[in-house]
Write a structure and sequence with these properties.
alpha+beta; seven-stranded antiparallel beta sheet; 19% helix
Amino acid sequence: MARPGSGVLVSVGGGLGYPSQSMARVVVWEWLNEHGRWRPYSAAVCHHIENILKGDARGTVILGQVDPQLAPYVIDLQSMHQFRQDTGTMRPVQRNFYDPSSAPGKGVVWEWENDNGSWTPYDMELCVSIQNAYEKQHPWLDLSSLGFSYLVDFDSMAQTNRQSQRRRRIRRRMDLAYPLIAGSIPKSQSWPVGTSSGTPCSCQQCLLVHSTRAASNAILASQQRRKLYGMAAAAGAGDQMAPAVRQSNTFAGTTLWSSTAAVAGGHHNNIAVGGGRGGKVEMSTLNFPCAPALITLPTTHTLTINGQNNLNRPGTQRIVVSTSRGSIPPGVPALPVKNLSGSGPVHPALAGMTGILMCAAGLPVCLTRAPKPILHPPPVNKSDLKPVPGVNGIRRKTKKKHLRKGKSPEDVVRRYTEKIKVAPDEDCTICMERLVTSSGYEGVLSHKGIKADLVGKLGKCGHVYHLLCLVAMYSNGNKDGSLQCPTCKAIYGEKTGTQPPGKMEYHVIPHSLPGYPESKTIRIVYDIPAGIQTTEHPNPGKKFTARGFPRHCYLPDTEKGRKVLKLLIMAWDRRLIFTIGTSSTTGESDTVVWNEIHHKTEFGSNLTGHGYPDPNYLDNVLVEMSAQGVGEDNLKD
């Protein structure tokens, strides 16, 4: 039923303001993602954080205690940062406040469907705006004033991108209400930083947490020192004063440097950090005992601050260190940190925190180059390329759709089922009607010789359905002569996919993969050109792109590796390796993407998770192919 009234263009700040100081309000804890958006924690996590906050305002919150998916993360209330223990990444967090009558106060969550078919919650300010419009029975809501080119339609429960016209489903669900508090609202959304009391635990997790605290305390202490030194230098140095430190605007509202500082002129070390938006930090506080030099760190160096890799993002910071003769102040240790890449004995997270700590305290820090993934092997001559032992040929091609002709949906269903005279008193999981009644597709689907009340059992798994429902399911699929049980996913017949035409090559190269030093390597090269989608694809008649081809993949030249290759060749022939859809990496639609069979595309490292060593990969990919109907029982001896 259509909603009455007219649509609304949401105004910035409308309904998002804080309640008066005397009113109660709802607390929502949020973290800053890599796109500069504040993302809300769930209501259960916020209740957990508030409980910890009541007991110790400068304590540590272990998020895994309430949500197992957040096990690597802790929040240090003292520095207001989320810390990932296995990588050392820090992200700012904030404590935000909303009216009790708003969406978080009522436990209302608005979500949109992502490319994986799962649901992602909106930012809280968007959630509040959407709920306000929904309660006022507006038929639609324009989010452009909040920086999003989306139109939310409440009648169809969908959002439309105004630029691409792409539609996504949205939903409104009820959850736990966010915590309600009373009392005065702090002037800042960040909790105050101070010294903690008590003896810290000596476990690895607590050591990582306390290293985060140490970095935060050192940064604040360094800011105060620079303020004092800057005032003294301004009084005694006159026009010799060095340029003041100005806040970098890479992060709005957060900075690792003091907003004002200066030192006396003379021989200094200058560290200049220039941001793409004009933000700049200049430090002139240190003297190093070394010859004059200029060291420029390229963009491949990595330093993670506030959860972002600021040194290898376009338009962010560039660090230049110039040195001149001088002396280190007494009592200041000159200890370079050289373990940021994780190659040394120190945990990379601890090394990263130590680097931030030493940099903030004005100590020299040696940043090592971030490791790059080794995607390809050394060059190989054509004469060194050898056929894979036990595998016929070196190339496979697909030109057009391979279907079993002449089989109607009714014939396919009859082939893999047997009729049941007495139907069990349970639901058909396809139409959700009782099996003792007629199929829900009666009158909807035209059929040949299959009555709506006929019930059949699949031969392998024994699951029971209306035969007409199985015909409807098959007719809505790839129609390749195979049938897949919707309950247990058992495959009947030979399942084929919708992979576009292309070429697959494979050969042995004289190099070894990490973890397989005694074996050579099987290299697979996939090449699919761009083209036009057919009737089996999402948008028939529309062009599709093919990014990143040819794609190189690697297997160890072992007995199990050759077995995997044979099954991958079979999956290629059945057009199951790739499909046309939306890239989960770039978000591009109508492009060639992987189709649920993982490949190793990183030859000499495993920095991306798509390389070696990975002792479980061969077993895992065998399981993935078996789920597609390509199992070891298909191999001929």
